[in-house]
Amino acid sequence: MSGLGFETRQVHAGAIVDAEAGARVTPIYQSAGYVFDSFDDGVERFAGRSARRAYSRNDNPTNVVAARRIADLEGGVDGVLVASGQAAIAMALSALAQAGDHILTTDRLYEGTREMIRGALRRQGLEFEALPIDADEDAWVAAVRPSTRAIYAESIANPLGEVVDLALLGRVSARTGVPLVVDNTVATPYLCRPVEHGAAVVIHSTSKWLGGHGSVIGGAIVDGGGFDWTAAAARFPHLHEPRPHGAPSFAERFGAAAYSAYLRSVVVLEHGPTVPPSSTFLLLHGIETLSLRMERHVANAVAVADALQDHPAVARVHYPGRADGQAERVARLLPDGAGSIVSIDLAGGRDAARTFLDGLRLVSQMTHIGDVRTLAIHTGSTIHGKLDDAERAGLGITEGLVRISVGIELVDDIVADLEQALDAVLAAGERTATRRSAAAQLEAVHP
Ligand SMILES: *Cc1c(COP(=O)(O)O)cnc(C)c1O
């Protein structure tokens, strides 16, 4: 829906009015399959020569509306909806790489992605190599091999909020002919559109801000439409091979949208990570208010970061743009705000984190982000709990780190709850200090 504003497109893009009843809201098409008109119609649908659908595993009308809406908001040409953000990452990479291939990433990634890289994807024979998030353009270009199939990054890294220079990675992609794949979950298309910086593929966990209400799990993959798959034919022969029965290759038939066509009609069809259309119904309702929620999420997050900055129990606040050397990049890439994850480093380490989290009344302790509710978690003992101390230290995950996903409640109420729990940390610290000094005095009296 070119020419219309983001706020309009988040409500209307991709929407259909159902032919039977004229329902204005996109219905839940809760049907496994779709009736053929005739024997020959079935043949045509299976051969992909008919625009009409056959089966909901990869082609459900409710899911198609949401996929097209997210693709529109991202400035891409097409999208595919899947069952979770993890499935989106797995499918997006499966459509690019096979055993023996190489993928470059930044060294700051969501831990679920790192787990998949270390686990399932490595067992399938993919090789991963991480470059520092601040590596320069020549370092990225030099790291590209003939077997490199993707450069993978997050627009805002979870949980510490480091921001990679997407414009730089876009230039690396253009120079090397390797597609840039960006997980844009934490920024959302309202705050950042990686396609504008040269990304070929954009991934979302729709479970987070897109859905926004913490009610559904889902994922999306957007085809940016700007990558030249023909020039990169040597890296992606599967997009250029003739199809069964002499049908043209994906590149010939779909051109700029060859990637999403292959993803939908081969990779997702074969693996089957289908999201229920009932979940997508809730996702669509979430997307309709994305801009409104993001404005509030960002304003609340900035206020929380400011308020906690000076609390004596807090050693450091992590919010994009506040780390050394990142301010210019964040202002350039995220002019409308840098998301709503605020992580705090408690000076008192793990014990302080326990007291803080157990002292929260309004804020929920749980593993999720992008909810209208404010949520908090000690990542070192949960999300990053399988890592050893050295690995955690290397990722900047300290003993006192608490990730806060700031919600859309009244900010004064959020800050008040966080502050009363931080005050409890100080009080507990004083109690411990008093006990220690009493013990020391006893020790001095009765050595
Ligand atoms: C949560 C998350 C995922 C995984 O999404 P699920 O929907 O939980 O499978 C991927 N990337 C990022 C950045 C996330 O925050």
Proportion of residues in helical segments: 40-55%
Mean pLDDT, all residues: 95
- The number of helical segments is 17
Q: What kind of sheet is the major sheet?
A: 7 strands, mixed
Count of beta strands? 12
Please state the CA-atom Rg, rounded to the nearest Å: 24 Å
Bound molecules: pyridoxal-5'-phosphate
Described by the principal axes of the CA atoms, the overall outline is globular
Architecture of the largest domain, according to CATH?
3-Layer(aba) Sandwich
Catalytic activity: L-homocysteine + H2O = 2-oxobutanoate + hydrogen sulfide + NH4(+) + H(+); L-methionine + H2O = methanethiol + 2-oxobutanoate + NH4(+)
Organism: Agrococcus jenensis
GO molecular function: cysteine synthase activity; homocysteine desulfhydrase activity; methionine gamma-lyase activity; O-acetylhomoserine aminocarboxypropyltransferase activity; pyridoxal phosphate binding
Family: Belongs to the trans-sulfuration enzymes family.
In a nutshell, what does this entry contain?
The chain is α/β, with parallel strands linked by helices and 447 residues long.
Write a structural description.
With 447 residues, the chain is α/β, with parallel strands linked by helices. It has two domains: 6-287, Type I PLP-dependent aspartate aminotransferase-like (Major domain) (Aspartate Aminotransferase, domain 2, 3-Layer(aba) Sandwich); 291-445, Aspartate Aminotransferase, domain 1 (Alpha-Beta Complex), CATH 3.90.1150. It is built from 17 helices and twelve strands. It has helices spanning 6-12, 39-46, 61-74, 85-94, 111-118, 120-123, 137-143, 166-176, 188-191, 250-254, 258-271, 277-287, 290-309, 327-333, 349-358, 389-394, 411-445, and strands spanning 78-82, 102-106, 127-131, 148-154, 180-183, 201-205, 219-223, 314-318, 341-346, 364-365, 375-378, 401-405. The strands form two sheets. Strands 1-7-6-5-4-2-3 form a seven-stranded mixed sheet, with helices on both faces. Strands 8-9-12-11-10 form a five-stranded mixed sheet, covered by helices on one side. Helix 8 links the parallel strand 4 and strand 5. It binds pyridoxal-5'-phosphate. The site of pyridoxal-5'-phosphate has 17 residues, from helix 4 and helix 5.
